[in-house]
Amino acid sequence: MSLKHIVLSIGLITCLFFCSLTRAGAFFETGSSDVDVGVWLTVTTQKTYTDPVVIAGPITHNNDNSLSVRIRNASGNSFQIQVQSPCTSLNEFNSNSPPPANTCPSSAWQTETVQWLVVERGTWVIPNGTGFTKIEAYLHSTNTVRGGGTNGDVINFSHTYATAPAVLHTINTFNDPEWITTTVFAPVGDKENPPTTTGFRIALEGAEAVNSHPTETIGWVAIERGSGTYNGNNFAAGRTGGRDVDRHQDECQNIAYGNTFTGAPNVVVKHNSMDGGNGGWVRLCGSGVEATQFNVHIDEDQVNDTERTGIPEFVAWFAFQANSVGALEFITASKSFTDASGDNQVGPGELVTFNVVLTNLQNDFAQANNAGNEFVDTLDSNFVFDSIINDGGGGLTNSGQDMLWNGSIPASGTVNLSYRVRVADSSTVCTSTNISNQAQVNMDPIDNAIQTGDTDNVNSIVELSDDTSTDDAVDSDLDGLTNDDDPTLVPVNCRSNVSVVKTDGAGSTTYTPGQDTEYTITITNDGPHNLIGAVINDVLPANASNNGDWTCDPAESPGDGSASCVSGSAAGTTQAGTGNVTLTVDIPNGKSLVIKVPISYSESP
């Protein structure tokens, strides 16, 4: 009998991926909407938000009459927007009730176009092509009305800014239908000065129409001034160098964005001082939003008087490619692996080490150690947890198939995690091309010192881990990029270096009719993987028959009892039979299995 009668086969390889069902991320986006005066319009956003902050305005000037913007019901993937005129409000400024509505038009209102920005609440950075742009967005509830003076609530920034940022602001509630808008100026001193590097004052702006108002929630956004590019879309944030934007009757000021755009971008523009005692807000004028510049002036109410002239103001803006979406970043997680054999492919029983680096991209804001897990990696079912190598300074634990880490990540800090898993001793592994695994970081971007009432300390935003060595061309986190959310793929190759030796127990190389003998088949797995589900076939040649049962014994030398004659059964499992040998066996890396076949040769071949 020759070796060609023995066939050893290992299962064919097919594709199997474990895909994360988590969809994650934090975003901002811009757009514009056509809105009728006094009519609520529901705007559906491209992204879904956990806690959106909406900035709206300026509006166009299709109506000469005074108009500003109100927002309400911002939640999930929508908000409502309305254009409102102070001409219908009670003239509280002069204690007249009601005022003569001599500034409301006698004909129907014309539709206006409103520019808007939506930002996920929290403290973030925006990738800008060469680094990061700081941005923060929060909500502030107040009934403080500036009332012709310097009334305002002091807000301190979460970020640390080298130069004062652009500050944008809009009421995000409609608790009372009476007209009202918003204003911001320096945190101390006179209202003619703009926000500083540390903060600002914010208030409801009643102009000359309103001097008291129920509590409303104001959305505000501060953005580091400068320009950048996200996913091919340019953006720019800026502020005038002085009180350069004058009143409605005085001028229409054109301002360059500070970056180039393909066509007219979206631009939100807000005043950053209130030097004029009559109050006011920014409104588009002239050619409005153009490809290279926008045109604005300061509008006023016409309730107390009809004039709209006076003192110019500081103005800040944020422009972004029209109808585009950008990602907000905080913590990233890179995840790689090494395998015990060092050939970057694994088989049953092999040890695999995952290495994770958590990085805080913000240089002035830390991720707190909240009650929930900051990091979760649900291991693929083809992995079995083995041990923790680096616990990141404490906090890394295992629970079943979950690797869990609880801890804080300081500003500009990193946390390194390493843990070892073993590839399952299962033939199922060998039907895979790759074993895919993706972890997630859970983040809390809310600065409790800024956001009054944020006491939940919940990690509400999820970031997917990324294998930085590859780009799967799939945008798993829906941020417009494909190279920042790649699962870690561990290639599978179950083929091992296997030797098969068959000897005649009688030591004879000559066929003798009627002779009894015993063949010994020794199968050795030289690795690098455990051999799982290997099929062993030994077909009796013609003119030979069994002389007793053949046996398979893992304890037979050079075996040590660690193999199994029945795949999937415990180590040391034996098997016996008659006729041709057909077995499906498991042999660990570096181990052997012995099969003995007693036979008799025919008397008359």
Explained architecture:
It is a single chain. This protein has three domains: 36-327, no CATH class; 332-440 and 461-491, Immunoglobulin-like, CATH 2.60.40; 496-601, Sandwich (Immunoglobulin-like). The chain has no helices and 40 strands. The chain has strands at residues 6-9, 26-35, 41-49, 52-59, 68-84, 112-120, 122-127, 132-142, 153-156, 166-171, 181-185, 199-205, 216-223, 226-230, 233-239, 253-256, 266-271, 281-289, 293-299, 315-320, 325-328, 331-339, 351-360, 375-378, 383-390, 396-399, 402-405, 414-423, 434-437, 440-443, 461-464, 488-491, 498-504, 516-525, 531-538, 544-546, 550-553, 575-577, 581-587, 592-601. The strands form eleven sheets. Strands 33, 34, 36, 37, 38 and 40 form a six-stranded antiparallel β-sheet that branches.
Percentage beta strand: 35-45%
- What's the rounded overall pLDDT mean? 90
How far apart are the first and last residues' alpha carbons, in Å? 14 Å
Discrete helix count: 0
Number of domains: 3
Helical fraction equals: under 10%
Question: Could you say which overall geometry the principal axes of the C-alpha atoms support?
Answer: rod-shaped
Gyration radius, to the nearest Å?
Answer: 36 Å
Main pleated-sheet profile: 6 strands, antiparallel
Could you say which structural class the secondary elements and strand pairing correspond to?
Answer: mainly beta
Total strands? 40
Spans of 5+ residues with little confidence (pLDDT < 50)? 1-23
